[in-house]
């Protein structure tokens, strides 16, 4: 079977590469000629552990190709994935212009039965719009080619996307015909050999599943951040509370770590989109509205701790910042809490010296030269008045604390991810501020 993946962003590139890895012939298509040229030379537009190795390997064995021509690529494809961006509009709704543009182009060039699969995160009802766009183009060509539109939402975690795709918790596919189900079952057969479940359902339910999953995870994060804030007020320790509730099998221990808010390409966008979808249909998602509000507030918590510690006077103060990406093992800066922190510190008259293991290039692109970018985490500490832990990279978890104290002007640490133990930090001579702990 030959498949086409339209879009070589995070989802499209991982999808195409992993299908090629199990022996399927894949062409990834993108309108960005420079990106395609780079990919053909093994140069990736994103950082994702293990992805570069698989891309180069599958280019070499001829199973993975990159092209700017959908016309040439779609002609004999059995499955075409639409994996282009759906950025949020000004009102929070998902912008479907790129998805529908691809659908129209598929209708202009397809010549045989295909299953057109929306891999992009799209609102309920998008598959129907995709079908109409394709059908319109076929009618313009006076052709009667049968096709199916399916929904196959992705559940990839940035930083662990390869394992998530090759060893999925579940594969969700929304279909509207038996033929489409047979095609998709055959396509995913290599991933089912180890017992990973494939769940077939109607298309609207599959579209909703993606939003519901991300919104639930975002809810758990905001809930724990809300609890953490209350713990500080009441004198409790959220780390103990987290262990206490995480041992309950009904709750579980994932996504209950307090911090400084979620970011990235999925949670903020998908929560907004689901709230907007509900509003357009006369329903108010009150829980998700609160989730979003808590998350926006949480991004200010670490700055407020910093500002209070220096009595509202950050003028001329230099803050060392460890981590810039929204989470470890990615260079993704979209909606990253670091952006809010940097902006707040600069507006207060302070300076920032930052280091991130992989996101420095992307940070320069977004922040520019407003901050100092250092070659390692210790260089950020030179003449700095305090240290902020913003991203919980493993590189930062067991540092040389004596060296930190020597380089900092003041032995003050603001730990936005609770990677250090407050009591131990106090014993080491640090003034320590965590999230939801008694050790401030």
From TrEMBL:
<dbReference type="Pfam" id="PF03721">
    <property type="entry name" value="UDPG_MGDP_dh_N"/>
</dbReference>
<feature type="binding site">
    <location>
        <position position="30"/>
    </location>
    <ligand>
        <name>NAD(+)</name>
    </ligand>
</feature>
<feature type="binding site">
    <location>
        <begin position="255"/>
        <end position="259"/>
    </location>
    <ligand>
        <name>substrate</name>
    </ligand>
</feature>
<feature type="binding site">
    <location>
        <position position="35"/>
    </location>
    <ligand>
        <name>NAD(+)</name>
    </ligand>
</feature>
<feature type="binding site">
    <location>
        <begin position="155"/>
        <end position="158"/>
    </location>
    <ligand>
        <name>substrate</name>
    </ligand>
</feature>
<dbReference type="InterPro" id="IPR017476">
    <property type="entry name" value="UDP-Glc/GDP-Man"/>
</dbReference>
<feature type="domain" description="UDP-glucose/GDP-mannose dehydrogenase C-terminal">
    <location>
        <begin position="320"/>
        <end position="422"/>
    </location>
</feature>
<comment type="pathway">
    <text>Nucleotide-sugar biosynthesis; UDP-alpha-D-glucuronate biosynthesis; UDP-alpha-D-glucuronate from UDP-alpha-D-glucose: step 1/1.</text>
</comment>
<dbReference type="GO" id="GO:0051287">
    <property type="term" value="F:NAD binding"/>
</dbReference>
<dbReference type="Pfam" id="PF00984">
    <property type="entry name" value="UDPG_MGDP_dh"/>
</dbReference>
<dbReference type="GO" id="GO:0000271">
    <property type="term" value="P:polysaccharide biosynthetic process"/>
</dbReference>
<feature type="binding site">
    <location>
        <position position="210"/>
    </location>
    <ligand>
        <name>substrate</name>
    </ligand>
</feature>
<dbReference type="InterPro" id="IPR001732">
    <property type="entry name" value="UDP-Glc/GDP-Man_DH_N"/>
</dbReference>
<protein>
    <recommendedName>
        <fullName>UDP-glucose 6-dehydrogenase</fullName>
        <ecNumber>1.1.1.22</ecNumber>
    </recommendedName>
</protein>
<keyword id="KW-0560">Oxidoreductase</keyword>
<feature type="active site" description="Nucleophile">
    <location>
        <position position="266"/>
    </location>
</feature>
<feature type="binding site">
    <location>
        <position position="327"/>
    </location>
    <ligand>
        <name>substrate</name>
    </ligand>
</feature>
<feature type="binding site">
    <location>
        <position position="269"/>
    </location>
    <ligand>
        <name>NAD(+)</name>
    </ligand>
</feature>
<comment type="similarity">
    <text>Belongs to the UDP-glucose/GDP-mannose dehydrogenase family.</text>
</comment>
<feature type="binding site">
    <location>
        <position position="263"/>
    </location>
    <ligand>
        <name>substrate</name>
    </ligand>
</feature>
<dbReference type="InterPro" id="IPR036291">
    <property type="entry name" value="NAD(P)-bd_dom_sf"/>
</dbReference>
<dbReference type="GO" id="GO:0003979">
    <property type="term" value="F:UDP-glucose 6-dehydrogenase activity"/>
</dbReference>
<feature type="binding site">
    <location>
        <position position="121"/>
    </location>
    <ligand>
        <name>NAD(+)</name>
    </ligand>
</feature>
<feature type="binding site">
    <location>
        <position position="334"/>
    </location>
    <ligand>
        <name>NAD(+)</name>
    </ligand>
</feature>
<dbReference type="InterPro" id="IPR014026">
    <property type="entry name" value="UDP-Glc/GDP-Man_DH_dimer"/>
</dbReference>
<dbReference type="InterPro" id="IPR036220">
    <property type="entry name" value="UDP-Glc/GDP-Man_DH_C_sf"/>
</dbReference>
<feature type="binding site">
    <location>
        <position position="158"/>
    </location>
    <ligand>
        <name>NAD(+)</name>
    </ligand>
</feature>
<dbReference type="InterPro" id="IPR028357">
    <property type="entry name" value="UDPglc_DH_bac"/>
</dbReference>
<dbReference type="Pfam" id="PF03720">
    <property type="entry name" value="UDPG_MGDP_dh_C"/>
</dbReference>
<dbReference type="InterPro" id="IPR008927">
    <property type="entry name" value="6-PGluconate_DH-like_C_sf"/>
</dbReference>
<keyword id="KW-0520">NAD</keyword>
<dbReference type="InterPro" id="IPR014027">
    <property type="entry name" value="UDP-Glc/GDP-Man_DH_C"/>
</dbReference>
<feature type="binding site">
    <location>
        <position position="86"/>
    </location>
    <ligand>
        <name>NAD(+)</name>
    </ligand>
</feature>
